[in-house]
Design a protein that fits this description.
The protein has strands at 10-13, 30-32, 37-43, 52-57, 60-67, 70-75, 89-91, 94-96, 103-105, 122-123, 125-128, 131-136. With 138 residues, the protein is an all-beta fold.
């Protein structure tokens, strides 16, 4: 089931936690906040429930995942060895590396089993109208 995000409804999400409002000057593809910039990466309807999509933003390789009507953004390269996690498997709230089968929790990036030990970076996600934005911090 899809959640309606139409009209002027604006939501910040760090994974599924903090909710706040943003200013109305964010109609461009990026907005500088002083602590980083919000960068538009796709429209909400491009993300299908349970799918992983790969995006490149400011030189960073990121994966977007829609799970239980929430959108998550994490580094898409395994912290153990170079492998593209967007080519891996999504099982519930975990993504599995296609190379050595390490699993990561999508809500906080935590490595759940070896050989990976380090977590993935998790990015703040914001929905503004039909657009998905990521907060990119230098």
């Amino acid at each position: 089931m899809r959640k309606s995000l139409g009209g002027s409804r604006q939501i910040y999400l760090r994974s599924t936690t903090s909710i706040d409002k943003m200013s109305n000057n964010s109609k461009n593809n990026s907005t500088d906040t002083g602590k980083g910039k919000w960068v538009r990466v796709c429209s909400v309807n491009e993300l299908k429930e349970g799918e992983i999509i790969a995006v490149d933003v400011d030189g960073k390789e990121i994966m977007l995942i829609k799970y239980k009507n929430s959108i998550y953004a994490l580094d898409r390269i395994c912290t153990h060895q170079y492998a593209d996690l967007s080519m891996g498997f999504l099982t519930g709230d975990e993504v599995t590396c296609p190379l050595h089968l390490s699993r990561f929790r999508i809500s906080d990036g935590r490595a759940l089993n070896p050989p990976a030990e380090r977590p993935l970076t998790v990015y703040n996600v914001k929905i503004d109208g039909d657009s998905v934005y990521l907060l990119m911090v230098d």
